[in-house]
Amino acid sequence: MPYYRVVGEVPRKRHVQFRRPDGGLYAEELMGEEGFSSDSSLLYHRYLPTAIIKAEAVEPSAASVLTPNLPLSPRHFRTQDLPAGGDLVTGRGLLAGNADVRMSYVATEAPSELYRNSMGDECVYIASGRVVFESTYGVLEAGEGDYVVVPTGTIHRWVPRGRVTAFVIEAAGHIRPPKRYLSKYGQFLEHAPYCERDLRTPQEPLTVEGEEVPVLVRTRGGLTRLVYRNHPFDVVGWDGCLYPYAFNINDFEPIVKGIHAPPPVHQTFEGPNFVICSFCPRPLDFHPEAVPIPYNHHNVDSDELMFYAGGDYSARKGSGIDVGSISLHPAGFTHGPQPGAVEAVIDAVRQGHTRTNELAVMVDTFRPLDLGPAGLSVEDPAYAWTWAR
C-alpha cells in the first residue's frame, strides 16, 4: 500500500523491547514483501506467532483442476446457476485461471475458518450482501460493491451477515494500485480515479482468546492445516504500509472522453501479468458524432474475463448476458457490441439518453486463461454464435 498506518499500541522505535503489563515481552512479527525490500508491517503479538502444535495435509479438490480453452471460443458462464455452499474460502467455484491468477465465484451464508493464503494476494469483490472481514490487522466491514484486498500471508476469516455472493481473484503475487496513479514516493496523483481517502482500513486491533486454533494455509505445495497453540488474533498493535483494505467500486471516478475510451482508463489494480478494471456508471461519450459504445476490438496480448455486477448492458443485448454473468473473450477472438446495438445506442442518444449505468469488474490476463469446473458447469453453449445472428 502507498501510505503508512499505525493501529493500536506500538513502541516509539522498531525492534526495541516492548513489554506487556505483566512485564513479559510482546512478540514481533515482520510481514514483508519481496524479501523485505518492499512494503512491510510490524505486528506485536501477545503470544508467539511461531507456536504451532500440529500440521496435517489437506487433500486438494478435483474442482480446482483447469482445462484448456479448446476449441478456442468466447464463453459465457451464468454464476446465477451455481449452487450456494461452503464458505467464502472453501465454497469458491473455480471459473478460469492460469499460473498468474485464478477467478472464482461463491455464494454462501456460512462463516469461514481461519485462512492464510501464502501464494499471493487476494482481491474479493462483494457482489451482494454484507460481511465482516476479521484478521490479525483488525476488522473491516464490507458490503455490496466493495473490493477487499488481502495481502499474502494474512491470517483472516470471513463472517457473512446473511447471504453473500462474491467474485474472487487470487493472484500468484501482489495486487496493487497501478504505478501510473502514484508518485515515485507512493502518493496517489491528481489524475488517479481514486485516492487514499477512498480506502478503508482496520481502525483498531482485534484480540480473541483461544488455544489449539486451526488455520487453513495455502502454499505452493498445496493445502495444510496448522494448529496454533494460541489464537492468532492476539495483536495489540501494528504499523507499516502492508495491510488489508476495502475500496468501493462506486468511489471509482470514471475518466470520460468525447469519443469512446479504451479499457486502460478503467484500470483499478494491477497484479503479476494481469490487471483489474472497474466499469462504472458514467456520462456517455459527448462528441456530436460519437459512437457511444465499445468498438469491435481484439486485444492481441490478453484474455478478457468480465463479471457483470449490475446495471444495464445495452451493448450486449441479445447475447444472454445479464447481471451475474461472466464472459470470457480469449486473445484469438475479436469481440464487440452485439448486432444492432450500435445503431440502437446512437438512436437512444438522439432521444436524450446521456448516461450508461453498467457496473462490471474485468480481469485482463497476459497469459491464456484455462477453464474451471464451476464455469464449465454453467456455460451457455450458444454464446459464441450470438454475433452471427
Automatic annotation (TrEMBL):
All copies of domain Homogentisate 1,2-dioxygenase C-terminal, residue ranges: 273-377
Catalytic residues in the record: 260
Protein name: Homogentisate 1,2-dioxygenase
Keyword Transmembrane included in the entry's annotation: no
Gene: hmgA
Gene3D superfamilies documented for this protein: Jelly Rolls (2.60.120.10)
Organism encoding this protein: Planobispora siamensis
Matching PANTHER family: HOMOGENTISATE 1,2-DIOXYGENASE
Domain (Homogentisate 1,2-dioxygenase N-terminal) ranges: 23-248
GO molecular function: homogentisate 1,2-dioxygenase activity; metal ion binding
Any GO BP annotation: tyrosine metabolic process
